[in-house]
Amino acid sequence: MPRLHRFLPFLQWPRPDGALLRNEALAGLTVGLMVVPQGVAYAALAGMPLVTGIYAALLPALIAVLFSASPRLSVGPTALTCLLVGSSLAPLATPGSAEWVQLAVWLALLSGVLQVLLGLVRYGWLLNLVNSPVLMAFTQAAAVLIIASQLPALTGFDNMDALLAGRGWHLQAFAFGLGALALLVGARRLRPGFPSVLVLVLVSAGLSRLLGFEAQGGPVIGTLPQGLPALFLPGWPGWETLGALVLPTLMITLVSFLETASSAKVDSGQRGSRWDQDQDLIGQGLAKLASGLTGAMPTSSSFSRSALNLYAGAQTAWATVFSVAVVLLALLLAMPLLHHVPLAVLAAIVVLPVWGLIKPRAFVHLWRLSRVEALIAGATFAITLLAAPRLYWGVLAGVVMALTLFLYLRLHPRIIEVGLHPDGSLRDRHLWQLPPLAPRLYALRMDAALDFATASALERAVADHLQQQPDTTHVMLVAHPINWIDATGAEAFGRLREQLDDRRVHLHLVGVKLPVERVLRTAGHLHENERLHLYRTEAEALQAIAQGATAEPQAAPRD
Fold first, then answer.
1. Distance set, CA 472 to CA 274, 440, 463 (Å)
2. Please, how many CA atoms are within 13 Å of residue 292, restricted to the half-sphere of its CB?
3. Are 284 and 419 members of one domain?
4. Of the given ranges (29-33, 117-121, 199-203), which has the lowest mean pLDDT?
5. Does the keyword Cytoplasm apply (predicted)?
């Protein structure tokens, strides 16, 4: 039964009572009232028919809450995922066309299948290849691009060319856009939980109709189809086009799940449970499949809506069920109310939450922590902007640079000669200007595993010291930090011991961990002789060296 619960998380939902249902209904109503106008706005960002934004918040949200391990997340269209869809398809089709919709559906299906497969084989750890600085820089660059894409509609222009040329300006659209943005900012500061987006949409629709905004050439949402979405099966795009979707699919899979991770960690932390990233991969992948089969774009977890769900007091997955019911009622009954909403208002709905993603101080803080990582983040930010609309090159470049740094650090482990600090601890002798622990002793510590990446560095450190100090008679290796050894590391240790034996240098091993000792003994590199000594602590080793230890090896207990 526990295994069944893992694959079918909804079996663990609590049986609701009246008090719980009232609480969850209020939270679901709050989120549902926000997701409808947001869905329409994000569909426009993705270049999709506007109603598909509501489709993406209906069945996908229900599927996700049934099969995900994080039941309080709000799943549907998000700004970042929709931007990736729009930028990925820009070279391949015309926004809003039938071909565009089919390709967007293919992105949803491909990324959904990939996420489900990764979750089933428990490969969620692969998504940790993107570190925090790269994700931060990419997110901020994407936020800049999202805001730039919405500026024409927000300020009353038809497109970016018209904005730059200063022609075709619509005064009323400008007033609607900036007025909507100002009202949303004020409402967020005064009443964060108030459904300000829905109220703004309804009020702007009424004003637009009263002023005859559409008749004066003002861009509005227009007529949206009512009713439930039908099953959508996309046509075969051809192998060449499908190949062009591979990189966008990988990026959407990666970025959308990192969006999910940011919300899921908050949710699991509040619930006091461990985050099951593999089950969330499955749930989010199934949601993408459901979105594609209803003719919509890929979905993700919205951080802002998930935070609002928690803020509204959601305790269980039932809140999401109620929000889905609100979206369903809106789809069946409220579509005519959206007809007169100005597109400038939708632009404001997109811009406000995205504006909060731009945090220049994050780069300053990162520079103080790690200048190399700050440079990687800066390069990721710049490449993402310069590569637009192919945003995935920014993420790929950031991942490659971060992995290169990781490999460099692995290939250059920290190996220090230790000395006795006045506080009684062993520290870097050269950094703290400490005397040697004993005459003709080289005491070193490697803060890394002994494997194929670090073995040559250890050999080189010992060889360099012996070349500079040929009178050395004792080498003490503080092995506490070495918690892993592979075949290459064992071979390197064997060569090191042979070289020291040839020079009649005693090797003192301190604190060898049991897994490392087992490998070395199996490899035959810990056989007893008069120049190999094992100790549990550095104090034992120093005492033995001070007494001129040349006795048989000591068998000290190790962990």
1. 52, 4, 11
2. 23
3. no
4. 29-33
5. no
- pLDDT score at 22: 86
User: Last residue of some domain: 342, 361, 386?
Assistant: 342
3-state secondary structure at position 90: coil
Asked if residue 320 and residue 199 are part of one domain, the reply reads yes
Q: Is residue 409 part of a domain?
A: no
What is the extent of the structural domain holding 423?
415-547
What is the tens place of the pLDDT at every residue in 322-331?
Answer: 999 999 998 9
Q: Give Dmax over CA atoms of the chain in angstroms.
A: 100
- 86-107 in b/e form (b: 16+ CB < 10 A) is bbbbeeebeeeeebbbbbbbbb
Q: Are 271 and 279 in contact, with CB atoms under 8 Å apart?
A: no
pLDDT of 552 above 70:
no
**Does one domain contain both 210 and 307?**
yes
The crossing angle, in degrees rounded to 10, of helices 132-155 and 79-89 is 80
Confidence of residue 6 (pLDDT cuts 50, 70, 90): low
**Is 103:232 a contact under the CB 8 Å cutoff?**
no
pTM: 0.85
Residues in the chain: 559
